[in-house]
Amino acid sequence: MQKEFGYARVSTVQQHEDRQVQALLEYGVEERNIIVDKESGKDFNRVGYLSLKENMLRRGDTLVISELDRLGRNKAMIKNELEWFKSEGIRVKILNVPTTLLNCEGQDWVLDMVSNILIEVMASVAEEERVKIHRRQEEGIAVAKAKGVVFGRPPISKPDNYEAVMALVDSGQLKSVEAMRELGVKKTTFYKLRQAYWQAAD
Q: What is the pLDDT at residue 150?
């Protein structure tokens, strides 16, 4: 029996997939057959998506997606995925590419041609948008760094007796466990402090 599955994707857990899911429901996909991923579209190594491909979809089934960029943002990878679905006998319907929704017996080649052109254009737009976002992020980081914004974890604060205790550890007069107690720090922090001490000594 042929089945119809829906796929929705948002890039982070903070984003909501409601709009995509609603579009799939309105098209007629059953809620139990809608798979959602909350992962980046940079590649296809996503739990829900891989489960669809490997465990759910069968020859003759249909995969429905609200928008092409929900599949992914890399044009070459999108085309490869669509080719894979085609070779497996799985139809892909993209709600914002209307020609992929049509049924036209005997004229499938025409629909395929038009759909391929639209997909090519939209995939290019999706990829360009991804490049723009990445470029804006890099520019924003560069501006922030120029203003003195520091990225990454804050440096470990050194206790007042740091130098004296580390000198005793370095000379073998104080064991690590005793040094942790003297400094009032946990094991992980102690070893980071010790590493910083050695690097400064070098």
A: 67
Asked whether residue 193 is domain-assigned, the answer is yes
Residue 165: what residue type?
Answer: V
> How much is the CA Rg of the chain, to the nearest whole Å?
27
CA distance 93 to 79: 14
Mean pLDDT for back-to-back runs of 10 residues, the chain (202 residues): 92 87 95 92 88 93 90 80 87 84 60 64 67 74 76 72 85 86 86 78 59
Q: Cβ of 2: how many Cβ atoms within 10 Å?
A: 9
| Rounded Cα distance, 162 and 193, in Å | 8
Read off the DSSP letter of residue 39. S
41 and 91 both lie in a single domain: yes
Q: What is the pTM of this model?
A: 0.57
Which H/E stretch holds residue 63? strand 62-65
Both 98 and 188 in one domain: the answer is no
Beta bridge partners of 9: 37
Report yes or no: 59 and 88 within 8 Å, Cβ to Cβ.
Answer: yes
The helix (H) or strand (E) run that includes residue 91 is strand 91-94
pLDDT at 64: 95
